[in-house]
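Quick one: structure tokens for this chain, please?
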Amino acid sequence: MLDASAISETLFVDHYVNIRAPHAGDVIAAQLRKTGLVTLDGLLTRQQVLECASRLMVIAPHPHGAPDGLTLIQDTGSHAHRSGFAGLGNGELRAHTERSSAPRPPRLLLLVCLQPASAGGETLLADGRDVHARLADENREAAVALCRPRTACFGAGAGHAAQVFTVQADGRVAVRLRQDGLARWSPIVQPHLPALRSAIADSQQRLTLRAGQGYLLDNHRWLHARTRFAGDRRLLRALGDPSSALPDGFDPHPAAAVLPRTSEPVS
């Protein structure tokens, strides 16, 4: 049986693209369309991360970000117990997509490790396509309920009414999720949340990032999480929309393709 470090290394290698190679941008664009996930290395400074992000996306501002559009992800010592700020603590971070409360969340997330934790802090990645397929196969009632429009509300105040899975007119599916105090659920889907969490847990793959390593993912397809950590763990994050064409969401597995369409478009 492979140990956790070997599994993490395999995940990194399987999705790795050398950003210094000729035509790396084309390779990354093709891989995003195919799998929605790219792993990278050699990004050791803020300037290198910014240059890489600027080549791959139109960087979107974030409320916690700096003027250059990058956000430093670290334990600030003062944010951990505030709803919506768990990423700036050192505790477990449940599987989620970025900016779930925005009318249209950014398509891409780039996260690069500047300094790993002294213990813990592993990334947990789950392909929404796999989560969606598991639900369709093992708990179809849950899969259908989680596609129903406006069955979740994400964000502070009035928030944004949406659904976990949006099945579009062309059959492609997009995912949107948060699991903190800023997520509110309709009674229609409340009983199905354990099935959703179980499907995510079964789909998650562990990734341990070293300094200079990172990943780029389709934020409408992949869910990411983090384990609790100790030490001065520091990462840089960029969010934005791709510089090249990227179809929205993912093609579902054949067994999940017959789920009903969501009556409203991705918003």
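The CA atoms of residues 149 and 163 lie 5 Å apart.
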